[in-house]
Design goal:
Length: 436
Amino acid sequence: MKIYSIDKFDAINDGKTICTSAIQAAIDHCHNQGGGRVVIPSGGVYVSGTIELKSNVDLYLENGATLQASRNETDYKASHIVGEYGGNRGSFLITSNNSKNISIQGSGTIDGQAEAFMDGWWTDDGEYIRKPKEFRARIIGLIGCNNIKINDIYIKNAAQWTCQLTGCNEVVIDSVTIKNGLDIPNCDGIDPDHCKNVRISNCHIECGDDGIVIKTTKEFSEYGDSENIVILGCTIISTSSAIKIGTESHNNIRDVIVSNCIIKKSHRGLSIQLRDQGTVENIMFTNCLIETRKFHNKYWGNGEAIYITAVERHDYEEPGIVKNVICKNILFRSENGVFIVGTKHSPIKNIVLEGVQGIISKKSKFPVSNYDLRPRHSEEHGGFTPGNLGCITAHYVDGLIIRESSVKIAGEEVDHWNGFLETKDVSNLNFVENRD
């Protein structure tokens, strides 16, 4: 493999000089020579705006090397991946469009400098959720790429999305550490959108939004479904959902396995949130340990360990269907239990809870006496309403098997809890060898 160090292209590691042109020159030269490795060497901080990876280039960060996001909007190029989100403009530090055989590897660090893109707080009490500036830097954004590897690197302080993959195929993400602020909004960990054949394994993720979220956004529907995705052996801390499917679900999402993951200090554990017209089917959640607790109400989530919903985003559109979901060997301690809710016209179909063992206990100061079906009724926070909860809550479900499972409440039982199972319009319900 041919190796090209960015310092040979006049990159300066003083933590001040903008090195975008030097890094891009190294990538371009490597690509033009047929491919190889572009090295960010150890021993300093290289500040950069948007750099574009190209086919057959491996971007390698040596141990002790830091690639740092510039604080200046003018150092970034317009993004092909949703230029504006949540009222904020943003662009990526590392991007690539329609490339093949690309990788980002090594034991070095990528620093998103999130603090530089924040301006005060969204909450009156001055904690929980930061208020972003009009522009935020994102970290990795790849679109239409094939054969991608992201291995071993340490990413911290993303101001918005950390790793956004859109319309990509054959993706391996292994042993990556992501540590973002738990009070930074929209700083998702890893987002496969319209992606196929994805393997995410052995990663540790901490972030103030969803840890890993699989989706199919409306803007890129031409890339089709998200399918054949494996998430294995990850540890996740999230102020939102640790692992989520949806809410953006305009195409189908199918054939997903989540296994051997540990979720701690999260607002939700394992989550399916269908809000659009796609189908979510053939999902397996197995062998996971979950700890959840309630956060501030501005975050979607109610402390649920397992959350499966299919409700309309807009009052004038019925959602698609969630079907064929297995939750097996799940051990949890949480502030809420299992929440499975569809609609009359879109009931959730064929759900199996097997070996689900949980204890519900109060930890936070925030109440959980409600149904959190956000987003709904054409509002981001529409669908947050009071209601009676069971240890397992099931509404509009066709086909629910509960086998060898037990969920209990520890401490005083309060008015909004309605026993082990709270149901509404559930058909084909089967209990098999359940424990007290």
